[in-house]
Amino acid sequence: MAVRIALAGKGGTGKTTTAALLIRYLVETGKGPVLAVDADPNANLNELLGLEVETTLGEVKNELRTSVPESMSRGDFMEMRVHEAMVEAEGYDLLVMGQPEGPGCYCAAHSFLSQALQKIEKSYAYMVVDNEAGMEHLSRLNMTEIDHLLVVSDASSRGVLTAARIAALVKPLQLQVGHKWLLVNRAPEEIPEALDKYVRETCEKETLSFLGYLSESKEIFELEVNQRPIWDLPSEHPLLVQAYRLFEEMLA
Predict the structure, then answer these.
(1) Which of its termini does the chain have fewer beta carbons within 10 Å around, N or C?
(2) How do residues 17-59 score in pLDDT, each as one tens digit?
(3) For the CobQ/CobB/MinD/ParA nucleotide binding domain, which residue ranges apply (predicted)?
(4) Are 225 and 48 contacting, i.e. CB atoms less than 8 angstroms apart?
């Protein structure tokens, strides 16, 4: 089974950018193949990876209602369509959940999708899941065992408190997490002493491991604004070096 890494964090913290940096790290350090899953309804991980998405898993789930051939079981149909929805790239593949369904729950579709993903992930060394803040997609897909939960915060005490509350959701969602990490993103060059103290006290209180700070980067901002992929960031860029060092520590 793949090593499962799930990212979570409130909007605006740079969670998806961090997920893209992590995928680039895994690919460039030879730790692949990697299965990337964009489970955030506001899906834009593909843009940061420079990939076009034609079919989402949400669309595939809806097809189970009307489009399954009589000669095929629904489980086989789901597995086939998940493979077809996959966007293939060098060293990694991407699946996008897409928008949630309307009123009501099509539980059978979730079950078939969960089974298909469990089969597929066996072909990968790592699975990186970019989540919505609430992480409900993990429980819906029966993805209840996570090796690393990486919660991303901005460099504010309110953001750190929100991140801690997100990490605490593992209990009500009945997720089994091997290790919970906090990453403070878009940090200033000089970390205020009060913020650093609050970060470390919060991590100790909430049984989070503090992974470190990622500095604010003008180049990352420009990539996001211009919808350019994370691969355009030069390999010697200080932020990339900083991020790779933290990821290496997390996966050691």
Answers:
(1) C
(2) 999 999 999 999 999 899 999 987 777 899 999 999 998 888 8
(3) 7-230
(4) no
